[in-house]
Amino acid sequence: MNNKKKFLLAGLGVCVVILAAVIVVQSFVIQPPAAIELAKLPAGEYDPAVWGGYYPLEYESYRKNLEMTPSPTGFGGSVNEQKSIKEPEILMNFKGMAFSKDYAEDRGHPYSLEDLISSKRVTPASVGACMTCKTPYVKDVFKEKGWDYANLPLSEVVKGAGHPVSCANCHDPATMKLTVVNPAFIEAMQRKGIDVHKASRKEMRSYVCGQCHSEYYFEPKTNRVVFPWDKGYTPEQMYAYYEEKPAGFEKDWEHPDSQAKMLKAQHPDFETWSGGVHGKSGVSCADCHMPYQRHNGQKYSSHHVTSPMKNIEGSCKTCHTQSTDWLLERVKTEQNNVFELQHTAGLAVSRAHEVIGKASAVATADKAGLDKARELVRKAQWFWDIVAAENGMGFHNPDQVMNTLGRSIDMAHQSVEAANKAAGTHY
Ligand code: HEC
Ligand code: HEC
Ligand code: HEC
Ligand code: HEC
């Protein structure tokens, strides 16, 4: 064989290997399981056990969401634990509102309804809007009453809801195609010019999660659920949206010490992910949180939706060539760095509330100066909370999260300075 032939043969060999690799990667990462036999369930069938009769592998893995196990990162996990144990600043920063009474780590989807009803945050004054992300029954309620359900007592609306987050929240029962049911998500996307009914399968693999794992607020008077996305997904853009007092919404509550008008951030997993390396690279929520598995040769999506770090092999190594240990260490390092700064920011915000409170007690204090300090603590706390309320401890977007926390700390210090200046104090 001459050199040219050897070269061609080697080239051919390389091509074959690449092609084989592409096919393997495609079949694991991109290709869905072979066509499934459709049960054609009727609309209004919300019992996951009935769905499970036709789709047993998905149902069995969904049942695993009942397991309450910690994550190997030391963060996340499915254990129902109060966040204030590790972050006591929560008690000060949410003083005067329900999150200082009860703020637990999230756990599996089958617990969503139970955890809603038993939450100490729920009172007789709680409204139907709270049910929006906890059960597929919201479909019926919205069809029947439109947004009026949001303003009815939660105790009344929740009566008809027999099942927690389950199959019908993400699937059309007849076609099994992915679907979104939360009207607030559909409307927010519409305002951005996106018709979710025309979304690609790949987009749907994140939209089904984004319909619930997102920041929202209740519109004053109607309690309609609204996602603050008109200006974009970053903490700054969402804050700018709130600054315009949409539909008269200016606060979730007033802090009793600083008397600042505060916002409460809610689990912005979708927003945070969307600007991160994975979101920008088209890696969907389901790629990591619902990896493919095999049972007797049949491929299916794991419906055990929990920390991907419990199954690094399936969740990460479809794309990453690093070792399992390396990936775990990498995630832990990112999260430890974020936790440390998040804690520092939370404490800096607590101190600002305290100092403004003391400065306000000085009779001669300059009112405009105190208001400036209050505005700064409101923003500092938003920047802390939008990170602290997110569920990935920074993993979904480490660089943005670090930037947000750094700015929170700076604004909290500025707030303390402004309060002291207004009152002539040195707290
Ligand atoms: C590249 C992989 C990846 C993608 C994509 C991803 N996540 Fe995560 N997610 C993680 C990791 C890693 C953690 C941290 C888990 C831990 O600390 O144990 C996490 C944590 C979470 C948690 C908290 C889990 C717990 O144990 O409490 C939630 C909720 C979550 N992600 C939702 C989402 C949503 C919603 C999306 C899409 C908008 C998404 N994730 C996209 C990897 C991913
Ligand atoms: C949180 C959203 C969500 C819930 C809840 C959910 N699924 Fe899925 N399901 C998905 C996603 C995402 C896929 C992947 C679809 C794709 O990529 O086309 C999927 C895929 C499937 C498939 C196609 C085959 C496969 O395994 O990929 C079946 C069948 C299925 N789910 C059944 C169920 C059943 C039964 C339940 C209730 C016990 C359920 N699903 C609950 C999101 C969900
Ligand atoms: C209908 C609303 C809804 C949808 C859709 C939804 N979630 Fe959730 N999710 C929740 C709620 C509510 C909880 C908290 C339940 C609790 O703590 O009782 C939760 C909890 C979680 C957890 C924590 C589980 C654990 O083990 O700690 C993860 C991870 C998660 N969701 C990821 C996802 C992903 C990924 C998707 C899309 C495939 C998704 N969710 C779709 C509402 C939803
Ligand atoms: C579907 C493919 C895919 C999956 C699944 C995936 N990643 Fe990635 N990951 C990427 C891509 C693409 C990048 C961008 C950098 C690159 O091209 O290497 C990246 C970058 C990273 C980085 C460096 C950037 C950063 O944000 O710190 C880390 C760390 C990482 N991934 C960890 C994980 C972990 C842990 C998991 C599993 C929970 C995971 N990835 C799952 C595709 C993936």
Descriptive report:
Helix 2 packs across helix 3, helix 16 runs parallel beside helix 18 and helix 17 packs antiparallel against helix 18. The protein has a domain of 273 residues: Flavocytochrome C3, Chain A (Flavocytochrome C3, Chain A, domain 2, Orthogonal Bundle). The strands form 3 sheets. Strands 1-2 form a two-stranded antiparallel ribbon. A two-stranded antiparallel sheet has the order 3-4. The protein has a two-stranded antiparallel ribbon with strand order 5-6. The protein is mostly helical. The chain has 18 helices and 6 strands. It starts with a helix and ends with a helix. It is globular, with a radius of gyration of 24 Å. One heme C binds next to helix 13, helix 14 and helix 16.
Keywords:
Flavocytochrome C3, Chain A, domain 2; two-stranded antiparallel sheet; two-stranded antiparallel ribbon
Mean pLDDT: 93
Secondary structure: number of strands: 6
Distance between the termini: 86 Å
- Ions and ligands: heme C
> Outline, from the CA principal axes?
globular
Structural class estimated from helices and strands:
mainly alpha
- In CATH, the architecture of the domain at 48-320 is Orthogonal Bundle
Per CATH, what is the topology of the domain at 48-320?
Flavocytochrome C3, Chain A, domain 2
**Oligomer category:** single chain
For the biggest β-sheet, the strand order reads 1-2
Order of helices and strands: HHHHHHHHHHEEHEEHHHEEHHHH
- The helix count comes to 18
Task: Give the proportion of residues in helices.
Answer: 40-55%
Rg over CA atoms, rounded to whole Å, is 24 Å
The proportion of residues in beta strands is under 5%
Largest sheet composition: 2 strands, antiparallel
The CATH superfamily of the domain at 48-320 appears as Flavocytochrome C3, Chain A
CATH class identity of the domain at 48-320: Mainly Alpha
